[in-house]
Amino acid sequence: MEFVALRDIVVLFGLALLTVVLLRRFKLPSIIGFLVTGVLAGPHALGFIKNAHQVEQMAEIGVVLLLFTIGIEFSLKELMRIRHLVLLGGGLQLFLTIAVVAGISNLDGFPAPQGIFFGFLVALSSTAILMKLLMDAGETDTPQGKTAFGILIFQDLCIVPLMLFTPFLAGGGSGLLDVVIVTLKAVAVVVGAHFGARFVIPWIFEQVVKTRSRELFVLSIIFIGMGTAWLTSQAGLSLALGAFIAGLAISESEYSHQALSDIMPFREAFMSLFFISVGMLLKPAILLKFPFLIIGIVIFIILIKAVLTSAVVFALGLPMRIAILAALSLAQIGEFSFVLSRSGLSQGLLTPETYQLFLAASIATMALTPLCMKVAGPVADYLTGLLPHEWTRGRSALAQNGAKVTMSDHVIIVGFGVNGRNLARVLKNLEIPHLAIDTNPYTVRNQSRMGEQILFGDASKPEILTHAGIEQARIVVVAISDAAASRRLVSLARKMNPSIHVIVRTRYLLEMEPLFMLGANEVIPEEFETSVEILSRVLKRFLIPQDVVEECVADVRKGGYEMLRTASKRHSHAVGITGFLSGAEVGSFRVQKGSPVEGGALREGLLRTRSGATLVAVKRGAEITPNPDPVWEFHENDIALVLGTPEQMRAAARLFEPARGTTGES
């Protein structure tokens, strides 16, 4: 018995291994390697695979799993929060692209129905490619990442209506009636998913988890994802849309993270088959027959999508730089366009030769997506630099009128995500002056209504920082997910205010060195801090005393950050006393009731003899006393500024805490 399907899989994966490893040496992404593998192995080149239909079916599973995992990582609440991007951004991008492409095609001599169908094909972008590249780059949470994702969601929602319009354009089918019926079905499916997420999914997982069987848990995930996809396909919707809805339902449960980790290996394997199957459709001979025509089509697709999408995103109120970054990431042809093109071929809207030209140009745009995303930053910076800031800053109703804020000695928070909001809430409770800057106009509007001091704009622009009072600020905290924007912002902040303290949140350790070289005082890598938090929690579970836990964490932080910053010390632009206190720390402690230092005078030497730390200043109420006299006595609620090594600071901290046996006294 010959297992043809198994043989094909072995051949494809083996060839993919060789191709991807070879191309990775030239720093090309894996996606290009999979596309090249498909072209080589397909029936139109080396002919290793004679029947591509089975591979295409498995590739469809890859698309389903991709949308399923995207749904798990997302949430219904997040979807509602960016609904303006989905409906307005996605709707304008789709319909505007279709209209412009149809108009140009009509001028080129194509009939109106065929031109509209060309618009269908060009308007869609690749969720599979873009989401993978964004996740690999850690940019899914950036403004341009969220904007692109919102537009992609709308495109995916429109796949079925576009499929139903295709026969109508070809002169058959009931077109509009079918679209209305499917729209009603889609609404019913979404409503069903909402109630399923609240009641059915949690009950299923609760029963499965009780069995304590990992195999059963994985099986239940596949059943829910594939089952929902199949049910939606039976209702006339796409498999991928059903999978996305199932993922959204699971995302609302407490088991979403485990479900995502279990399904991820399956997704990666089947997604590689999807890209390989796309490459198998192409006849390489078409590249030799029409090379310049294909290049022209590729340039036309990228330019028309980049220009129109930039205009749409900018019209939504986002800064021009964000609009350009999002647009260039969406400048490729989508995987669902291939499904649509086959329907157009069968309906007579595409000739076999036009179909092959479309495939060649589409695969080229997919392969060029990593390059487009790489050059997007420099292109955006160049274009925005040519125009006045008033033209590029975003929606005028939210952009500032140029007047500076009246704050001084305040904190500037760049990025109002989870980290920014938590910091702002604590600063507000402590009555520390602060303001935030964010590029999302809807976030700015909502937070402004809630009384938050927040500005709209791109903080990497000097005009925005000037308006935020960068020259008078004490600290700027960069809490955004865009690594390139963070680097520009740090450099700009350091130039505009050489004495400001710059704190940057970043994702990975590799991003620390460039930030220190540009002038950051402190860089907090999530990757490193997560390991520290894990260490702390593990030790606490073993009932290790709190002071020992704090000592271990301090040692790890000291060793880790010293190692990470060693190469950057000569580049540091840090100014002030901390530049002269290598190995020392400055901290503040509140004198608590019943603590050893309460009521004691400095001349008694308790702080110095028992900890080795030095008292720098004391704040009592609104009065600050630097270098207090030896007769000074500590009172309850005094705040002491202390200087010492990490070990001395830990010892000093215990002197300001209530002595054992006094915590329960009144």
UniProtKB/TrEMBL annotation:
It is a multi-pass membrane protein. It is found in: Membrane. Residues 408-525 form the RCK N-terminal domain. The keyword ATP-binding does not apply. It holds the Pfam family TrkA_C. The keyword Transmembrane helix applies. Keywords: Ion transport, Membrane, Potassium, Potassium transport, Transmembrane, Transmembrane helix, Transport. The chain crosses the membrane at residues 6-23, 30-49, 55-76, 85-104, 116-135, 147-170, 176-195, 216-249, 269-286, 293-316. Residues 573-658 form the RCK C-terminal domain. Belongs to the monovalent cation:proton antiporter 2 (CPA2) transporter (TC 2.A.37) family. PANTHER family: SODIUM/HYDROGEN EXCHANGER FAMILY/TRKA DOMAIN PROTEIN, SODIUM_GLUTAMATE SYMPORTER. This is Sodium/hydrogen exchanger. It comes from Geoanaerobacter pelophilus. The lineage of its organism: Bacteria, Pseudomonadati, Thermodesulfobacteriota, Desulfuromonadia, Geobacterales.
